[in-house]
Amino acid sequence: MAGCSSHDLLAVLEKQGPSRTTRLAAELEAHPITVTQRCDALQADGYVRRVSADVFGITEDGRAYLSTHVD
């Protein structure tokens, strides 16, 4: 799974639960900074929440987004 689209990132969080940015980056074959930036943007939209400094989890709004948007 290459890339770091919003949909891909949310799908990984849905599957794995709250995850460190380094783990997400490895799964998505993306740089950790790219993943952090994408998570920050998704957090601003209410789709993810920051659990700790480098751990993010999906929100109910994020799950709803996944069910209605296909990349």
Task: Provide an overview of this structure.
- This protein has 71 residues and is α+β, with helices and mostly antiparallel strands.
- Helices cover 58% and strands 15% of the residues.
- The chain is built from 4 helices and 3 strands, in the order αβααββα.
- The protein has helices spanning 6-16, 21-28, 32-44, 60-68, and strands at residues 19-20, 48-52, 55-58.
- Strands 1-3-2 form a 3-stranded antiparallel sheet.
- β2 (48-52) and β3 form a beta hairpin.
- It is globular.
- The chain starts with 5 loop residues before the first helix and ends with a helix.
- The model has no long low-confidence stretch (mean pLDDT 92).
DSSP summary, beta strand count:
3
Structural class: alpha+beta
Largest sheet: 3 strands, antiparallel
Strand adjacency order, main sheet: 1-3-2
User: What's the helix-strand series?
Assistant: HEHHEEH
Which term fits the overall shape?
Answer: globular
Radius of gyration: 10 Å
